[in-house]
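Researcher: Please translate sequence to C-alpha cells.
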Amino acid sequence: MSKFNTISLDAADTLFYIKKGLGDTYNGVLKKYADNYDSKNISASFKKHFSNRKGLSFQGLSGDKLYSAERDWWHCLVKDMFSELGMFDRFEDYFDDLYNHFKFDAWEIYDDTIPFLKELKNRNYKIIITSNFDSRIYNVCDGFGISEYIDYFTISSKSGCAKPTKEFFMKSLKNSNSNIENTIHVGDNPELDYKAAKKIGLKAFLIDRENKSNEQYIIDSLISLLGKI
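Model: Translation complete:
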C-alpha cells in the first residue's frame, strides 16, 4: 500500500495549456487593433519581461482588491512589452480583451487530465493545486470540470509568495492539511516544480509530454504517473 495520500499539482502546462501558444494568442487578439506584429517577437518579449518582474503574489488581499492587484500586475507587464515592441492606439481596449480571453477561452485541457483526476479520486487521494496563478484559475478549472476533483487551491496571487520558495509549498500543505511525507508534487517546470519540491523533501515528478527520457522522475503523461504511485 502506498504511503502517499495527497497529490499536489501545478496547473498551466500540467492540467491545461494555451491552445494556440502564447505569441499567437496575444497576436490573435491584437489583430482587431493592429496587424504589424510578429508572434515570435511577442513571445520573446513576454519571456523577457515576465522573467524580470516580481512574482505574481500579494499579501492579505481578497475580493475586488485582489482582482485589481492581479489585473494591474498583468497590465504593467503587457504595457512594458508593447512599449518595447511598439505601442499602438487603443492599447487599453486590447488589454481588456486579452485579459478576458485568458479567463477561459485561451486555454485547452489535456486529454488525460480528467481521467487522471477521476482515477486519483477512485484511489481516495486528496488532490491539491499548488500554482503560480491568479484568481482566474477558478474560472478555467470550473469551465473544464477540473474543480470538482480539487480539494484545495493554493495560488501565488493570494499567498504573498510563489514557487519556487519553500514558504509557498509549505503554505499549500498547511492550507490543505497535508504533510511532506505523504505528498507527491507534479509539475512541468524543472526549477519551479521538480527541483523546488525535492529541495524541501517532497516526492516529485516532472511532466514533459515531449521527452523520451527514461529518468525515473520524468513522466510523459499524467496517466503514466498512476503506475508509479
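Researcher: Any highlights?
Model: Strands lie at 6-9, 16-18, 107-109, 126-131, 152-155, 183-187, 203-207, 218-219.
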